[in-house]
Design goal:
The complex is a heterodimer of chains A (about 475) and B (about 350). Chain A is α+β, with helices and mostly antiparallel strands. Chain A has 16 helices and 20 strands. In chain A, strand 5 and strand 6 form a beta hairpin. The longest helix of chain A has 20 residues. Chain B is about 20% helix and about 25% strand. The chains are: A alpha+beta (about 475), B alpha+beta (about 350). Chains A and B meet through strand 9, helix 7, strand 11, helix 8 and helix 10 of A and strand 8, helix 5, strand 10, helix 6 and helix 9 of B. The complex binds flavin-adenine dinucleotide.
Chain lengths: ~475, ~350
């Protein structure tokens, strides 16, 4: 029987797609790349996922796990065929209020988990800006971050256990509510592995009590460097607020034109800072952030008066990428990190690179973590422009690495940055990484060609090479 | 001298390589001659996980000291052989902490990480794995490998830095690591309360510890916050954080439970055991002079999805009791992972669950 027939025998006819237009849609994500899927499968249960894995193995066809497809590093792209395994039907949530945990289906949307937990005074800390669309499975696979990961850590700090389907259709439940499970922490290794080790079907996550009080501040500056310096100074003063986010003037203007969130557009940069905790602490810490901002030349410090105003400020911040989509046919952003003390000089360098290439750069970023997202708006139908954008992007990443930074802070490596891994790691480091993959997935069934450059395993030169096809960018 | 697995006496050698190159040679030679290497940090946890007879005692004193510390970044890169106490003392000078165990004795940073031992502040600031940003290690066959980076947020490749936590050197001998730091706020206090339930009056305390019949809530933050929280708790307040030491005895145990079962775990300990329970984290450290009652306790803990681990026992073992208890799932993959990093299996072999 054919691959599709075998899959339909397991899932039923309507849960396996193979129409060209459907394949087209499921062969892309939020990156600029386009792949080619063989078919799309929608399992509802863990047992069905295991059955799909066995069918794939029998046919020698790879599996590309997929959540909502909001990934920006082309992690969910099938580059030369394969079964796109969509988790969107796996969306159960089981709360354990006493232990402050929840078992969550991989296809649950991040914001839905937060809404489910809220009536119990609990919340899920990782809040990517895409939280109204992205899935927990995608968050786990990418170890996603969010504005509120500054104090609480990214997804990995909130995953206590995982149910996964591995090669051979083996189902494992790793970790649990109790701490320090004996043995190697396989669960921790699967977090951030971008779907290359297996399919996550459920995650056991930690929930945090909602804080007693919160204060959201909006500071505006005449220089971007004054905003970044404020962030560095706040951290250096020994305060780790819940969030410290910066938007530059271009970005603020784009958001304001789209949403009317009440953001000041006549300044070079705004800093959104949030402090949480007991009321007394919030008071004192908000005062400290204001003071440091003023010392660095903040023109105004506005404090959100109520929940509505606070929600609006956050909506403005989290809609930044969407706002650029309103003003430009395409955008491309790099997600890189530098040590926080080097933010000011790095931002200057990023601007200089953009200027050199004659590109428009918008900045919105998780400043408190040193996590940049320089975003270039352009028209991808112009090949010269596209080439410039790529060149500039590479230079920006190199500028961050040169300052002791990293390739990606939260979006992942995927296909996008896999060949840049050589700029950060030695051949021996990459070989060690390839061995981690091999221990789980010796035949390369899961999400091939992602994360590690070809030939990372020093001894696999004879293997089939999967180059990124020419033109995959558009 | 100890008994070799094959019967005869083993000649033990002590080495303390001064640098990475020397360490590479030691491990290459050990792999070639299949000599068992025991890695010694502070030597405080050598009983953990039934250590095998060994040929080479590898001391990490050559990898000691702070390599890079920019206080403004809240990160520090430190040699594996650095005593935890020395590191924390240094960081304290700038009101920072690596959130490692509070009463570390002679433990080294590398040892604490390899054994996966966490801070008493783990319910609030999470365990030792969350400190790990970058790791450098030498594999059993002498490859020098780095994973992660010296920034607080990083998803470049597989998460090797966190994987080495609790791995007992099975992926390699750690030479250095970069850790995420935390600022120490202006005020701190220890408040004695009647029972663990009272602690719920504070939303997110730094720690709630129950030991020797007493329960203490540890607070830190702005002075206003600490004093108002202490007032709400109502107990006797002492300024500063007065951490209890781990319970000590011939046998030392680690009971791990779902957090909400911590009180029940305490009530189920045999009456003669001393304990230190970390509420909110589900970890109970215990000690006893005899192993009686441990099997029952383990059976209950495993039924709850937890475990009872033997941290230290007199030589000769614990009447056939496995140090770890029920083997965790995924042992086959764990075995394959280890084979990739220590193919001749010379570093602390057999110390992990399942005899890995
Ligand atoms: C507007 C916008 C804003 C964003 N903001 C943020 C942000 O603030 N912070 C941040 O970190 N990211 C952000 N992202 C990136 C993206 O949303 C996250 O990476 C998200 O976690 C991806 O989830 P997804 O469900 O869309 O996954 P997909 O894009 O479908 O997949 C992402 C990767 O995860 C793998 N995967 C998905 N599900 C599973 C599974 N069940 N098992 C195994 N592997 C799986 C895929 O194979 C792929 O490699 C943003 C993206 C957009 C478009």
């Amino acid at each position: 029987m054919s691959l599709v027939q075998d899959l339909r025998a397991v899932l039923g006819d309507d849960r396996v797609l193979e129409e060209p237009v459907e394949l087209y849609l499921y062969s892309r994500d939020a990156s600029l790349m386009q792949g080619q899927a063989t078919c799309v499968a929608f399992p509802h249960t863990t047992a069905e996922v295991a059955a799909v894995v066995r069918v794939a193995e029998a046919h020698g066809v790879p599996i590309i796990p997929r959540g909502a497809g909001t990934g920006l590093a082309a992690g969910a792209i099938p580059i030369d065929g394969g079964i796109v395994l969509s988790t969107t039907s796996m969306n159960q949530i089981e709360l354990d209020v006493e232990n402050r945990t929840a078992w969550v289906g991989a296809g649950v949307i991040n914001l839905d988990l937060t809404k489910e937990a809220e009536p119990y005074g609990l919340s899920f800390a990782p809040d990517p800006s895409s939280q109204s669309a992205c899935t927990i499975g995608g968050n786990v696979a990418n170890n996603s971050g969010g504005a509120h990961c500054l104090a609480e850590g990214a997804t990995t700090s909130h995953v206590l256990g995982l149910e996964v389907v591995l090669a051979g259709g083996e189902v494992l439940v790793l970790g649990g509510q109790a701490p320090d499970m004996p043995g190697l922490d396989l669960k921790g290794l699967i977090v951030g592995s971008e779907g290359t080790l297996g399919v996550v079907t459920r995650a056991l996550v930690r929930l945090l009590p909602i804080e007693a009080d919160v204060r959201t501040l909006l500071l505006d500056f005449e220089e971007l460097s004054a905003a970044t310096r404020t962030v560095s100074d706040v951290i250096a003063a020994g305060l780790v607020p819940a969030a410290l986010e910066i938007m530059d003037q271009k970005m603020t203007t784009a958001v304001e034109n789209w949403l009317r969130a009440g953001l000041p557009c006549d300044c070079a940069a705004i800093l959104l800072a949030e402090v949480v905790g007991e009321p007394e602490a919030v008071e004192a810490e908000a005062a400290l952030v204001s003071r440091i901002g003023m010392q660095n030349g903040a023109r105004n410090v506005q404090v959100a008066r109520d929940e509505e105003e606070r929600a609006m400020l956050w909506k403005g911040r989290k809609s930044a990428f969407g706002a650029v989509a309103q003003v430009s046919p395409n955008y491309y952003l790099h997600d890189t990190v530098v040590p926080r003390s080097r933010l000011v000089e790095t931002m200057e360098e990023v601007q200089a690179i953009a200027d050199r290439h004659g590109l428009d750069v918008y900045n919105v970023f998780h400043a408190g973590d040193g996590n940049l997202h320089p975003l270039m708006a352009f028209d991808a139908s112009d090949p010269v422009m596209l080439e410039k954008v790529h060149r500039a992007g590479e230079e920006m990443v190199a500028a961050c690495l040169a300052r002791g930074g990293a390739l990606s802070g939260e979006h992942g490596i995927g296909l996008e940055k896999r060949d840049m891994m050589r700029d950060d790691f030695t051949d021996i480091d990459l070989d060690a990484q390839a061995r981690l993959k091999e221990a789980f997935d010796p035949s390369g069934l899961f999400n091939p060609a992602k994360v590690l450059p070809e030939g990372s395993r020093c001894f696999d030169f004879g293997g089939v090479r999967r180059e990124i096809p020419d033109g995959a960018w558009v | 001298m100890t008994e070799a697995a094959g019967g005869g006496p083993r000649l033990q050698q002590k080495v303390a390589p001064p640098d990475v190159n020397a360490l590479v040679s030691v491990l290459r030679e050990a792999s070639a001659s299949r000599s068992v290497v025991q890695v010694v940090g502070g030597g405080t946890r050598q009983g953990y996980g039934s250590p095998p007879p060994f040929d080479i005692a590898l001391h990490m004193t050559g990898f000691s000291g702070i390599e890079e510390w920019d206080p403004d970044d809240l990160t520090v890169t430190v040699g594996a052989g650095t005593p935890v106490a020395d590191l924390e003392a240094e960081l304290s000078g700038r009101s920072q902490t690596a959130v490692l165990p509070e009463v570390p004795g002679a433990s080294t940073v590398g040892g604490v990480i390899s054994a996966g031992v966490s801070s008493l502040r783990r319910a609030r600031l999470l365990g030792t794995r969350e400190r790990m940003l970058e790791v450098r290690l030498v594999t059993g066959d002498g490859r020098v490998v780095r994973g992660g980076g010296r920034v607080v947020k990083n998803v470049s490749g597989y998460d090797l830095p966190r994987l080495v936590v609790g791995a007992f050197g099975s992926l390699g001998v750690i030479t250095s690591m970069c850790l995420k730091l935390w600022p120490k706020p202006a005020a701190a206090a220890t408040v004695a309360i009647g029972d663990a339930e009272t602690a719920a009056r504070v939303r997110r305390p730094l720690a709630v510890l129950e030991h020797d019949g007493a329960t203490d809530v540890f607070l830190w933050g702005t002075p206003e916050e600490v004093f108002s929280s202490a007032a709400r708790l109502g107990g006797e307040m002492r300024e500063g954080l007065h951490w209890p030491a781990d319970p000590d005895g011939r046998y030392r145990w680690s009971l791990r439970l779902p957090p909400a079962s911590t009180s029940e775990g305490v009530s189920r300990l045999p009456a003669t055991w001393s304990h230190l329970a970390i509420h909110g984290a589900g970890e109970i450290r215990a000690a006893s002079d005899a192993p009686d009652g441990a099997e029952d306790l383990r059976g209950w803990a495993e039924g709850m999805g937890g475990s009872l681990v033997v941290v230290e026992a007199p030589r000769g073992g614990i009447n056939g009791m496995d140090p770890w208890g029920r083997p965790p799932p995924g042992l086959e993959i764990q075995g394959r992972l280890i084979a990739h990093f220590d193919p001749a299996r010379v570093i602390n072999p057999g110390r992990l669950p399942g005899g890995l």
